[in-house]
Amino acid sequence: VEALEEQLAALRIARRCVPSEEPAYLLDIDASRAGAGGRGRFAAASCSARSVRVFDRETLRPLREFRGRQGPLRGVRFAHACDSVLLSACGRGALACWDVRAAAQSPARVFTGHPSSVFVGFDLSCSDLVVCAGTEKAEEEALLVFWDARGVTDCAGAAKEPLGVYSESHSDDITKICFHPSQPSLVVSGSTDGLVNVFDINKDNEDDALISTCNSDSSVSSLGWAGEGYKQVYCTTHDEGFCWWDMAQLDTEEPMTLLRVLDARESVCAENRGLHYLVDGLYHEKAGKLFLIGGTSTGDIHLISCSTDGLSLVGTLCGGHSATVRSFCWSPTDESLLTGGEDAQLLLWKPGAVERSLTKKASLKISSSVQKRVRVHNTSLKSREK
Asked: Looking at the whole model, is its pTM more than 0.85?
């Protein structure tokens, strides 16, 4: 574990994207995984410009940009079996499926239904067979909507109507959806109602499908799976809390809660830089270790180790971003990290890397130029003190 922590702390900038003519916050990032050796060719980011931008995974060269005709595009998720298939939420009541190899501005497939709903979080099962999206609360309901995604890797077919919905498990906006990494029938959802629900969607109805309900006591901002066999679930909250549960204890008398931290900013000692917010969790499968990634409003990125004894700072990545980091994507294949934030920058970090795309002096000039055109919210919800 110590060697792993040293490796994570040794991450250095390998590449940074060339600033766009239209600077925008990078709100969500994903990288394709289905290429040779498990490393895909593409990375994608959803932007505050209401669009999705696609990049070359290694060089961060911008390839194309998709814009929704029926509303802003939110979130990005690549298919598992084909690295050119990308999903995003698209306007009211729809998810769009894009072929990132094609420059066409029309999605290759659209998942429709519930046109009055706004989708917030979504995910695609590890088998690429089911898509699930969560909605904002509307007419006293917050829904989990499911579609049959068979054929999604072909990027072909007409619009698809939902298979069905779950309507009784959450009472407010469903912010995050995450399928299990290896069991396609398991999915976890989080909401602003504070609940984190685990479902087995192979069951016949919603009541039977609900395996577990955990209460974070706060609005859920991110969640995921962790632990050996991915039998654990964690979440972070919009007021920078952290909760970690063990689903393996469901049928035992042992407590499910592994750790509960009301405010990570008060628990993690980050010297003079401080901790302003949490972004998400990162489970390192080889080491069997859960980490959190957080940061400061000036762009420092903190790597935080999780144990049942509490949270501890592993290291800080400095000199990359100049504003709040909104999202990241970890690649276990080459142990690299993609990060994006409110400074309109997409960065690729690798252990011991030397930045090759720009000289240090030039990169600072470009960053400064972008900052002048992008108003950075240092007092946003995720970095505001209680």
From this structure: yes
